[in-house]
Structures are given as C-alpha cells and as structure tokens.
Design a protein that fits this description.
The chain is an alpha/beta fold and about 170 residues long. It is built from five helices and eight strands; from the N terminus they run E-H-E-E-E-H-E-H-E-H-E-H-E.
Amino acid sequence: MDFAPLKDAAVVVCTGLIEDDHETSDDYRDLLAAMRARHQPMICVNPDLVVERGNRLVYCAGALAAAYEALGGEVAYAGKPHPPIYARARELISEVRGGPVETARILAIGDGIKTDIAGAAAAGLRSVFIASALHVAGADGFDEAVLARLFAGHPAPPLAALEALAW
C-alpha cells in the first residue's frame, strides 16, 4: 500500500475528524468538495455520526461520510453495521478459538442502535446495549420505558442493557 497526499490519493480512508473535539463536518466542506471534483472514493471505517468521549459527544467519521455522500461522493463503509466487519470478527474468533464458533456463543456489545445493535441483528448475533449518552440523555439513566421506546419496532432488540461497561 502506498500513501499519497490527498490531492493524489486513489482512495481516501476516513477514520474521523482531525480536531474532533471542536470540528464538525461543515469544517470539511471545501476539502470534501475538492475530493468530489477529483472523483475520489472514500472508505469510512467508523460509520457512527457521533461517539461518546467522556461526558461529551464528538463527531465521527460517519458524519464526514454522510457529508461526502450528500455532495454525490462515493463512500464504502467498512465498520458496523456493515457485513464485512462481522465476517472479519467471526474469522478472528475462529482463529483464536481454534475452530468455528456457534453463532449462539457470540455476543455483540455496543452503544449505537443504528450501528452496533442493528449490525449485530443483521449478522444474526445477540447483543447487549450500553445505554450511553448517544441515546439516553441525562443523569437519571434509563429504565424499561426508555428501552421500550428506543427499541419499539426494532427487528432484534438487545438481549440486555447496561448503563456502562468497564473492565
């Protein structure tokens, strides 16, 4: 693989914003327009629009990808909820375990309903939802009513929900 300056790149791999603590996709409008004029495809490795960092939400690669698509740019997604990441995860699990692992023994954990939980459902995996600030605002946490609202009509709601996950 060869790396090149943006103006010469055959493909742009987007992992996030450069100064994500204060930038938005609007700050990249001119850069994205120049990429579009050069017909450069983008690979977005994290389709989340925002992610939680500490007590804040910051924009993520998915926000740039969405802005690029809005300009007519071509975007391929490599992260959740898209199938390639789940196929690769299954390969790695099989390598570590020394053989295939039954789908029923795999559990996906995440805080994004549209990415983590939806991707797990599409891959046929059970999931655990981490009720972060992405979907559950306020210090009061969450309860069954909040979860029922969040997952109303969801094809495969999570097996469980936790306020946080720490190890």
